[in-house]
Amino acid sequence: MLIEVPAVIVLFVMMIHVTANALLRAFASHPIPNTLEITQYIYLPIIALLGFMAAQARGEHIVADLVTHHFPTSVRRAVLAGGYVLAALVMFGFAWYGLEEALHAREIGRTAGVSTVVSWPVFFLIPISFGVFGIQLCFATVRALRGAEDDTDPIDAEVARINEELDAEHALPAPISATPDSEAK
Questions:
Q1: Buried-most residue among 100, 104, 128, 166 (CB within 10 A)?
Q2: How far apart are CA 5 and CA 51, in angstroms?
Q3: Is 143 within 8 Å of 135 (Cβ atoms)?
Q4: pLDDT of 115 above 90
Q5: Rounded to 5 degrees, what are φ and ψ at 72?
Q6: How far apart are CA 17 and CA 40, in angstroms?
Q7: Where is the Tripartite ATP-independent periplasmic transporters DctQ component domain (predicted)?
Q8: Coil, strand or helix: which one is 1?
């Protein structure tokens, strides 16, 4: 997925930065300045916010259908679509609030804690990521209403196939021996 590329790059850069900071602190007694602030206010928010979008694009958010799998198909679709609509509205609300906060952070020139590391540009990723997440949930609503969510999960289908193969192997009759049971003793 295209969204995963920047997240992986930021994760790799963060890994190198933190490792270099630890090595320089331990062996040269000269750590990289503001590593904690850069990690906390720049790297981690980027990774987390891009991760929300990537998980939704891959369909890998946690689903707990303890009750809904007992519902008739049409009711299950309606409940799922209603949940997606509610979640999309919440995400759009977060995007709106995040935009207001990002504009305010830019206006005051927000920095990371008490350091001089500028952190306000990362605030603009909040409305972008939650807005995109809301749009993804709108598409998921349409898919749920069309019944695309009714299909069997590929992993569940693969597990069922493997279980059928194992059952078939265990159901084979025992080989017939040439000697009667009385002679085998």
A1: 128
A2: 11
A3: no
A4: no
A5: -60, 155
A6: 12
A7: 14-146
A8: coil
